[in-house]
Specification:
single chain, 261 residues, alpha+beta, Ku70, Chain: A, Domain 2, seven-stranded mixed barrel, two-stranded antiparallel ribbon, 26% helix
Length: 261
Amino acid sequence: MARAIWGGSITFGLVNIPIKLYSALDEKGLDLDMLDKKDYSHIKYQRVNEHTGKEVAWQNIVKGYKINGKYIVLTDEDFEKASPQKTKEINLELFTTTDQIDSILYDRAYYITPTKEGTKAFALLQSALIKTNMIGVGTFVLRNKEKPIIIRSTHNVLILHTLHFLHEIKSPTDYEIAKQTTNKKELDMAIGLIKTLKGDFNINQFKDTYTSQLLKLIKAKSSGKKLPVSAKTIKKPNMDLIAQLKQSLELNKKPSKSSKK
């Protein structure tokens, strides 16, 4: 098991559950290095003092906030003093259903495990969430930043999702477009196209084909072989909306029983 990124407790009412948090994400991709294109030398990032030009070791770096042109330096103890409870405790203030949470608010996911002392209370919370089909909502502080969170039970584990505060979400009004009139024929065809593509969601049907194709290209280049030809070429689309819909419906038309025979 990976190293826990946070340790503390979940509370609801007077129930206290000592727990640990582990990242639920294992983001994969090709580990590409940054190089100088002149001689392919590796580019390194350095933490440099702006006045001396010398590199500063991690242990000598502190965090500060500027007020009236002067930095106020903060220590680990200062961060905890700001809210001792929220740095060590997740208080579930509300229980609700997942449809109450707009998907734009979701941030990251973490697995929750109990400590030895919290096993029984942890199982109780998990059973209660399953039985009520509810999620717990609260806030806590992770890496010196407060986050709203939800806790839900799924696949025999408890998962904590950090959420964004509303002020962190850009206003959708900046991206609204002027209302367009929709032709009934176009709308009916678009609905028909959606119906032909209707199905049940299964994340396993989506694969990271781009990374595998990129790796094939890298291996071909390394051996001096001819680069593989892309399976698909991007053609300039026909801007006639009716024509696009007709062609799409033809491509996605399900074969009839007679044609199957």
